[in-house]
């Protein structure tokens, strides 16, 4: 993949861009296999790959420059802004959206936030596209509500220019530190859920819910989990750290007892909406801490699926899984290092199948799906 921003030295986020893609893939696979080298008789499946460019469904753009000439992109550590609208990781559909947003910012009088001076209102623009409908979710991250009336008044022009905008909201982030969003979300459209669909499973994205950035590879990840789980013939499962329910909704059969747990209430609202659309009768999604739920629950499911953040599931949950002893654990991870540490704390289980999913080309990051079976 050629990137003029990388060549010019303006952006080095894709740290592996100079490596041929087959080499990138080989190094990731080697890293993963070295982490699990002590496990024997493992079925290693071929890595799943997607496109090398234009694969992202979202953009997180720092807004800088002036109100008359805003820049959308990022800030270097010294405060130097870089416009990333030409980043080749974004789909072609984003080009026009970025252009319209640059014209909208002065129309709405949204002064870009100046980090050094601690002045201005508009901090970020967060954009998500549905590959199912082409609909867009747009979030304005503002320092305060002082420009909210101006933003509302200018929105009809923006919606006329970009009819694909389905969900619009304002997030209020008053903290000066480099924290992307705050807790307070203000809806600016009646609809606050963007519909996506993977493998004929409806999924919904709300403003403060997490969703994968590489839809093509993510859909294959969910489909693979579905195939592995269905082959086991289980009757009950937990989906811990379930997000919007992608794994559990793929894996559950009409008769499956599924409990999905996620700390984010917004994500749980999405999962419940999907389950209702699918007509699943034996599904319970709850907005709880996954570890606290698991350690307090008395019933033991046939399978526990975990999809934790980068830190992994940790010793407390590992110890509990060892004691409760479900027949299977399906571990989806965005950080193979923390996954490998967790697996060492699950001595009652053996690794039987592993597959790498290259969700993040041109970086050292990847997703991995691992099936563990009780010894």
UniProtKB/TrEMBL annotation:
UniProt GO molecular function: methyltransferase activity
Record field: catalytic activity: uridine(747) in 23S rRNA + S-adenosyl-L-methionine = 5-methyluridine(747) in 23S rRNA + S-adenosyl-L-homocysteine + H(+)
GO biological process, one term: methylation
Active site residues according to the UniProt entry: 334
UniProt enzyme class: transferase
Binding annotation for S-adenosyl-L-methionine: 212, 241, 262, 307
EC number assigned by the record: 2.1.1.189
Matching PROSITE patterns: SAM_MT_RNA_M5U (PS51687), TRMA_1 (PS01230), TRMA_2 (PS01231)
UniProt keyword annotations, A-Z: 4Fe-4S, Iron, Iron-sulfur, Metal-binding, Methyltransferase, rRNA processing, S-adenosyl-L-methionine, Transferase
Sequence positions that bind [4Fe-4S] cluster: 3, 11, 14, 87
Functional note: Catalyzes the formation of 5-methyl-uridine at position 747 (m5U747) in 23S rRNA.
Assigned protein family: Belongs to the class I-like SAM-binding methyltransferase superfamily. RNA M5U methyltransferase family. RlmC subfamily.
Database matches in PANTHER family: RNA M5U METHYLTRANSFERASE (PTHR11061), TRNA (URACIL(54)-C(5))-METHYLTRANSFERASE (PTHR11061:SF30)
NCBIfam families from the UniProt entry: meth_trns_rumB
Entry protein name: 23S rRNA (uracil(747)-C(5))-methyltransferase RlmC
Originating species: Serratia aquatilis
């Amino acid at each position: 993949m050629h990137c003029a921003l990388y060549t010019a030295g303006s952006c080095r986020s894709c740290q592996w861009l100079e490596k041929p893609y087959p080499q990138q893939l080989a190094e990731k696979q080697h890293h993963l296999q070295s982490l699990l080298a002590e496990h024997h008789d493992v079925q290693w499946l071929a890595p799943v790959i997607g496109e090398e460019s234009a694969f992202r469904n979202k953009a997180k753009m720092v807004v800088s420059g002036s109100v008359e000439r805003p820049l959308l992109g990022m800030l270097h550590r010294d405060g130097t802004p870089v416009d990333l609208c030409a980043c080749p990781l974004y789909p072609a559909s984003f080009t026009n959206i970025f252009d319209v947003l640059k014209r909208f910012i002065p129309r709405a009088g949204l002064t870009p936030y100046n980090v050094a001076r601690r002045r201005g209102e508009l901090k970020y623009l967060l954009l998500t596209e549905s590959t199912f409908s082409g609909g867009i979710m747009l979030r304005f991250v503002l320092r305060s509500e002082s420009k909210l009336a101006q933003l509302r008044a200018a929105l009809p022009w923006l919606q006329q220019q970009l009819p694909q905008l389905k969900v619009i909201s304002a997030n209020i982030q008053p903290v000066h530190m480099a924290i992307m969003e705050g807790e307070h979300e203000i809806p600016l459209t009646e609809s606050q859920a963007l519909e996506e669909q993977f493998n004929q499973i409806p999924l919904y994205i709300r403003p403060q819910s997490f969703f994968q950035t590489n839809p093509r590879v993510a859909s294959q990840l969910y489909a693979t989990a579905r195939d592995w789980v269905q082959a086991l013939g289980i009757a009950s499962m937990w989906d811990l750290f379930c997000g919007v329910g992608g794994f559990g909704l793929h894996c559950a059969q009409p008769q499956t007892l599924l409990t999905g747990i996620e700390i984010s209430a917004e994500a749980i609202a999405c999962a419940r909406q999907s389950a209702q659309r699918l007509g699943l009768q034996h599904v319970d999604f709850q907005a709880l801490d996954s570890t606290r739920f698991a350690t307090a629950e008395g019933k033991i499911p046939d399978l526990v699926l975990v999809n934790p953040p980068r830190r992994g599931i940790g010793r407390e949950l590992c110890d509990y899984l060892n004691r409760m002893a479900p027949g299977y654990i399906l571990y989806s991870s965005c950080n193979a290092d923390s996954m490998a540490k967790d697996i060492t704390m699950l001595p009652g289980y053996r690794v039987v199948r592993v597959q790498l999913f290259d969700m993040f080309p041109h970086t050292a990051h990847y997703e991995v799906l691992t099936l563990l079976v009780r010894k």
